Amino acid sequence: MKGAVAVKGVQKLSNRRGETFTGWAFAAPFAVLFVLFLVVPAIYGLYLSFTGETLTGSGGELLGFANYTEALTDPDMWRSLGNTLWFTVLSTVPLVVLSLAFALLVNLGLPGRWLWRLSFFLPYLLASTVVVMFWSWMYNPKLGLINGVLAEVGIGPVAWLQDPKVAMISVVVTTLWWTIGFNFLLYLAALQNIPEQQFEAAAIDGAGKWRQLFSIVIPQLAPTTTLILTLQVLASLKVFDQIYMLTNGGPAGSTRSIVQYIYESGFTGYRFGYSSAISYLFFAIIVLVSLAQYKLINRRSAA
């Protein structure tokens, strides 16, 4: 009897070891790629930030915190960071509010709902180059559709991408048109998961549509709003494609993002060490923003 129990114990242990080995075998390819293409470059980039490494391979001597000190006193770096934060503020609010408004309208049961869904989400599937090409023609001061419409109502042409006062707004409008479809679908899916019985009970109690919106819909959408807000802030902080292709950071650096400045410092200015230092300072800012959002979310959840 004891021998049989011992044999079963050995078999269970052997099965567990086999399952563990199988699990590691499945995870090994991803783990290898993760280490090679994420962990190793991150560590090497951190090392570069303490050196004078250049694109030509020279200047690899250790400089200590000299790159970080220079970055913290670099007015171009701070201006690029300010542009990035300003873009984040300008884009995040409408991308949350408008996507919710559009999802509410479609969820009301408008005819042709599939067409509304397609029209809102289709731009999100386009490549950034296609989006930029389309809006570059739209913003053309002489031939663009926008200035053409303004001319019909007696308004003079606007240099949408050449005027520092409106260039960032133009980039934000392009971003809204391009990316609002993803947030729209998230909100629409969340709306369709709200039980219909809640609206029926509220209607019996005499609650109108506006009361239902603020007492049922918006509270039920709080987790989705939190997710969208978090993703949107992080995506806006890392903006690069549309700004680089629409304005190349101009005019006069008024739209240059911090990611573009990192790129220019490393591949145009040939200063890999300095660009690495800026990138790690920016990484620290993203971590702080993420932690602040996490604490805010926890406080609201607790409340």
Keywords:
2 domains, MetI-like fold, mainly alpha, 303 residues, globular
Radius of gyration: 26 Å
Which range does the strand content fall in? under 5%
Structural class: mainly alpha
CATH hierarchy: architecture of the largest domain: Orthogonal Bundle
Give the low-confidence spans. none
Count all strands and give the number.
Answer: 0
Q: What string, H for helix and E for strand, traces the elements in order?
A: HHHHHHHHHHHHH
Write down the CATH topology of the largest domain: MetI-like fold
When the domains are counted, the total is 2
Alpha-carbon distance between the termini? 58 Å
CATH superfamily of the largest domain: MetI-like
3D structure, described in words:
- The chain is an all-alpha fold.
- The protein has two domains: 1-40; 71-302, Orthogonal Bundle (MetI-like fold).
- The protein is built from 13 helices and no strands.
- The protein has helices spanning 2-48, 66-72, 75-107, 113-121, 128-138, 145-152, 167-192, 196-204, 209-220, 222-237, 241-246, 258-268, 272-302.
- The longest helix is centred in the first third of the chain and has 47 residues, at 2-48.
- The termini are far apart.
- The model has no long low-confidence stretch (mean pLDDT 86).
Write a concise synopsis of the structure shown.
The chain has helices at residues 2-48, 66-72, 75-107, 113-121, 128-138, 145-152, 167-192, 196-204, 209-220, 222-237, 241-246, 258-268, 272-302. It is mainly α and 303 residues long.
Task: Set down the secondary structure blueprint.
Blueprint: H1 2-48, H2 66-72, H3 75-107, H4 113-121, H5 128-138, H6 145-152, H7 167-192, H8 196-204, H9 209-220, H10 222-237, H11 241-246, H12 258-268, H13 272-302
